[in-house]
Automatic annotation (TrEMBL):
Residues 403-530 form the GGDEF domain. It comes from Dactylosporangium matsuzakiense. NCBIfam families: GGDEF. It comes from the Bacteria. This is Diguanylate cyclase (GGDEF)-like protein. The keyword Transport does not apply. The chain crosses the membrane at residues 34-50, 56-74, 81-100, 120-137, 144-164, 176-198, 210-232, 244-264, 285-303, 315-336. It holds the Pfam family GGDEF.
Length: 795
């Protein structure tokens, strides 16, 4: 813990190298400004001082300027990266070598021997600086290395002309001194190369690192000026400009030490393919242009400054600048080749991207077409759907010229039987085959659509006088082969002539006509007429009123007696539903079909059964009569119908033998053995089943023997009108005789006259019901009928 606190002594709780808080950051910026101003003044003052005092002031200034970095390097040594730590160590080593040089200068009266002990420090500082900067640049900045090589090759021409070549002509110094003298400019050249590489690679992104590079640049500039003087034999002369530049390098070092994010550890950003660093910026182009002129300029300078008495072999010294110029040209060619390859790669990438974009656009157009097609067409048959039908109708009806259009809706009758028998997948195949037939009948300009399920629509533009409705009906009725099966279908059609209506209104009118065709017995075409709209409005009004009829007390159960001929004694009672809303009574023939179609007959029928069984309990006890309650097909389809009937008998106490459930022949749908399970179960408990309106529906005398019922109710249309109507007696006589042979009592309905009652009695009919005996009425009215027709109690 102490070690951690020591490493973070500057800002406890903050990791080294991270940005300090705003207040502390402003304080550090102020200190850097003061240090820069004071350091600059000290640099100028100590550089202008002469003699021993000047040397002392120079050394003190150098130590003072670099002190912040020295303190920072020791204090935050754990947060310093190895590469930049070596750079700082190189400056420290150079500072120590400067101290040795100053001491030797004062000891020898200003004449420092060459070579000397300080040279070891300088050479070591070069090694540390070069090694640190190589590590700071990293091994991945190849483009930066190439750019640095171009600049170094150009600077090398100057070094050869100004520094190296003059030394080669000095014969007064020994080999060791000559080698050391040549080592310095070569080390400067190497240090310049790695510094430029670091700068161009972007490794010195922190401002502190840029200050370190600036210190290296100032030092190299001072070295170049100093060695240029030394090459001309003035080794001991130190110009004030050299002192300013050297001290300036230490000042840059100190300013870097005061920066809050000195020595960042982040690795240089790794260039990617097509990186912007591979592209020549305007600054680099100008820099390379200047570099290409350095070689020729140095050569011209050399030729101009050499007098006419040049030695015969002097031209050999121009070989090195020429080679360096050639190397520079080669490097520039390589650099330009890299740019050309980069341009080719980017051009290829652009072409690839264009092809991909073109393919993506084609795919998008195709996808949009598929989505639009899917949004406007039926996925099973491929026909237009309701949205496309409305769109086509909108377009046709919006045209200025008035034309005769028509819409034909068709719904396959009992298509659920196909799905139930063969499965939904086969049903879809049937729809596809049927759609193909309908498409063959439709004209090219017509719109054939599937609206859903087994319902289709045909919008006929410019409809002819004779619409293809009957032809479509014939096509639907024709045997349809699907795979190995042959399917026989029929359809109901609703037809509407369009005359100014909007598409929604047209479809609504066609649906009304289609429902009328369904109610009319299916397999027929019904043309829309305004009466259908009125009937539908009436249907809507009645269904809305029926939903609240029970809770409002508008429903009532009336009772009509069933009498025994000839004395007209009451033996049974039929419960009949009546509805009297606030605006007046509604006939049963009007509201019962509505209740059937909407399903309201289920709760209403349960209420009627409860009321009838409660009222019949007293009559059964007193007179031995039974109660007959009508049951609809919708009630029989309920899964718990039998349980609810038995529960009503249990609550009311009415014996099962006293209840007769009256059903229509449609329950059997032509199959005499198809008695619903619920009725079979109730029949097993003793409840009797009566078939209403016998002879008008699916039944016939040929299968009367097979009907699983207990009572027959002969429809009023087969009741003889009087004694002289012998032609009306045949069917009634046959039913009565067959019922007698099966021990099935028959009840003749609709008896309105005494003559009808006499004829029926003569034919052998024992039970009758009608207005001649009593009209349906409330329970109180039935009590009067009992008093009149059953004066003697039978219970």
């Amino acid at each position: 813990m102490r070690v951690f606190q020591k490493a973070n002594r500057q800002a406890p709780g903050r990791a080294p190298g991270l940005q300090p808080p705003p207040g502390e950051l402003e304080g550090m910026q102020g200190r850097r400004r003061y240090f820069a101003v004071a350091g600059a003044a000290a640099v100028v003052g100590s550089s202008l001082a002469a003699g021993q005092l000047g040397r002392v002031l120079w050394l003190v200034t150098a130590v003072a300027c670099s002190a912040p970095m020295l303190v920072r390097a020791v204090r935050d040594r754990r947060s310093i990266s190895t590469a930049w730590g070596l750079v700082a160590a190189g400056f420290v080593t150079r500072l120590l070598a400067d101290a040795v040089w100053s001491a030797e200068s004062m000891l020898h009266g200003g004449a420092v021997p060459f070579p000397s002990w300080n040279d070891f420090g300088y050479l070591l500082s070069y090694g540390l600086l070069v090694t640190g900067l190589i590590g700071a640049a990293g091994g991945r900045a190849r483009v930066a290395l190439l750019d640095a090589s171009i600049l170094v090759a150009s600077v090398a021409v100057i070094d050869w002309m100004v520094l190296i070549h003059p030394y080669l002509h000095r014969t007064e110094i020994g080999p060791l001194a000559l080698g050391l003298a040549l080592a310095y400019p070569l080390c400067d050249l190497v240090l310049f190369a790695v510094a430029v590489r670091v700068l161009l690679s972007g490794a010195a992104r922190h401002r502190a690192n840029l200050l370190l590079l600036a210190g290296v640049g100032l030092m190299l500039t001072a070295n170049t000026i100093f060695f240029a003087h030394a090459a001309n034999g003035r080794v001991r002369d130190v110009h004030w400009l050299d002192d300013v530049l050297w001290l300036g390098s230490y000042l840059a070092l100190g300013l870097a030490g005061l920066h809050p994010r000195v020595f960042g550890r982040r690795e240089p950003r790794r260039p990617q393919a097509g990186d912007e660093r591979d592209v020549l910026s305007a600054g680099r182009i100008l820099l390379f242009g200047a570099a290409t002129l350095l070689g020729p300029a140095a050569t011209v300078y050399r030729l101009v400054t050499t007098d006419g008495s040049r030695a015969p072999g002097e031209w050999r010294h121009l070989i090195v600048p020429a080679l360096l110029a050639g190397l520079l040209s080669v490097l520039l060619v390589v650099r330009l080749g890299g740019l050309a390859r980069l341009a080719q790669r980017r051009l290829a990438d652009l072409a690839t991207n264009e092809r991909r974009l073109e393919a993506a656009l084609v795919e998008r157009v195709s996808l949009e077409h598929q989505l639009r097609h899917g949004a406007l067409h039926d996925p099973v048959t491929g026909l237009a759907n309701r949205a496309l039908l409305s769109e086509r109708m909108d377009w046709a009806l919006a045209r200025p010229e008035r034309r005769h259009h028509a819409l034909l809706l068709l719904d396959v009758d009992r298509f659920t039987d196909v799905n139930d028998a063969y499965g939904i997948d086969f049903g879809d195949q049937v729809l596809v085959a049927l759609a193909a037939r309908l498409r063959a009948v439709a004209a090219p300009g017509d719109t054939l659509a599937r609206l859903g399920g087994d319902e289709f629509a045909l919008f006929v533009e410019h409809a002819p006088a004779e619409l293809p409705a009957e032809r479509l009906r014939a096509e639907v009725k024709a045997p349809l082969r699907v795979g190995a099966r042959v399917v026989h279908l029929t359809a109901s059609f609703g037809l509407v002539d369009i005359d100014g209506q909007t598409p929604p209104d047209v479809i609504a009118d066609a649906e009304l006509a289609l429902r009328a065709a369904k109610r009319g017995g299916r397999d027929r075409v019904v043309r829309y007429r305004p009466e259908l709209r009125s009937a539908r409005d009436t249907f809507t009004r009645i269904s809305a009123g029926l939903r609240h009829a029970v809770e409002r007390g508008e429903l009532a159960v009336h009772y009509q007696p069933v009498v025994e001929l000839p004395d007209a004694r009451i033996v049974a009672v039929e419960a009949l539903l009546r509805w009297t809303p606030a605006d007046g009574p509604v006939p049963p023939d009007d509201f019962i079909p509505v209740a059937e179609e909407t399903g309201l007959i289920v709760p209403i029928g349960a209420w009627v059964l409860e009321q009838a069984c409660r009222a019949a309990g007293t009559w059964h006890e007193r007179f031995g009569t039974s109660i007959t309650v009508n049951v609809s097909v919708r009630q029989l389809a309920e899964p718990h119908f039998a349980d609810e009937v038995l529960a009503v008998l249990d609550r009311t106490g009415l014996p099962a033998a006293a209840l007769v459930l009256e059903i229509t022949e449609s329950v059997f749908a032509g199959d005499a053995d198809a008695l619903p399970d619920a009725l079979a179960r109730l029949r097993g408990h003793g409840i009797r089943i009566a078939i209403d309106d016998f002879g008008t529906g699916y039944s016939s005398l040929s299968y009367l023997n097979q009907l699983p019922v207990d009572i027959l109710k002969i429809d009023r249309s087969f009741v003889p009108s009087g004694p002289g109507s012998d032609g009306d007696h045949a069917f009634t006589r046959a039913v009565l005789q067959l019922g007698s042979s099966r021990s099935l009592p028959a009840i003749a309905e609709g008896i309105e006259t005494a003559e009808q009652a006499e004829v029926l009695h003569a034919l052998g009919c024992r039970l009758a019901q009608g207005y001649h005996f009593a009209k349906p009425g409330p329970a109180s009215q039935l009590e009067a009928a009992f008093a009149r027709l059953n004066p003697v109690r039978t219970g």
